[in-house]
Specification:
This protein is of the alpha+beta class. Helices cover 19% and strands 25% of the residues.
Length: 314
Amino acid sequence: RQMCIRDRYESVPDEVATVAEPDVPMQETTLYYRDGNGYLVPVTVEVPRQEGIAKATLSLLTASTVNDMEAASLGLLTVAPEGTAYDLDISDGRARVDLSAEALNAADAEQESAMVSAIVETLTTFDTVDTVEFLVDGQKRDTLTHGTTVSGTFTGGLVNPESVETGAGLSAADTVMLYFPSDSGRMLVPVTRTVFGEADINTAVFELLKGPRQDSGLQNALPQDCALIDVTVKDGVATINLSREFEQALQGADGGRHALRALMLTCGRFPGVESVEILVEGEPYSTEGPTAAPTFVNSAEEMESWYPGVLEVE
């Protein structure tokens, strides 16, 4: 069964912003929810194909009966206060989004910051958007109610940044994007980690093997004792050679899906990497050869099929 946004509207007919009639073509789009630990989580869903698909996607971020039910079915939360609406103009790679006054009603700074980041990350998934600027109720503002900055120009790609100790040599720092299973093991959460030195593919895989921070509430993507032997990139294929302990990932509840996907997503962010091949002690892990790097992190359809039912989010 294909899961899509349309399904949620069958029992709530009065909310029609993204309702699809039967047999209306659907289109995949990625939006950002937040989980119970405050992390932003990208989820690919299907919405009715339409003009203004970016604005329609933003509308799914706002708290409402339908949107909250959709997010809760995935164990997640919407990010924008109830009633928040969006006027959107996209031109020459710049998206100017005008938030309605309801955006000022965020419960706290955490929700407010998550809303701004989710809007930026959601919009920059579209090929037509490189940067995002904000208005609120038609006016420019420096900050929102709880102090979140909305002035200037925003770019995507800095999702869930880990804190960095003050006094560190930030002038020599760079970042890598890593992917770790959530505390429920239900989805992958992107994390932006600061590294000191070259932020290349070797560094990214090494950091993935180190795992999340102990107080993060996230899980290891790979078995704890797994070691990196080497990483090479040739003709668009990233070949990752891991120690025998990698095979322990198969014993996980998901059969190793998250381990493989975390590796492919982490490597697929590097220019020139089109597919990923896993070796274990120099031997191919799969007889099928290199696998194309995925273009999405979490699919709503997969999340519901692996873990049916509605989860409570604290």
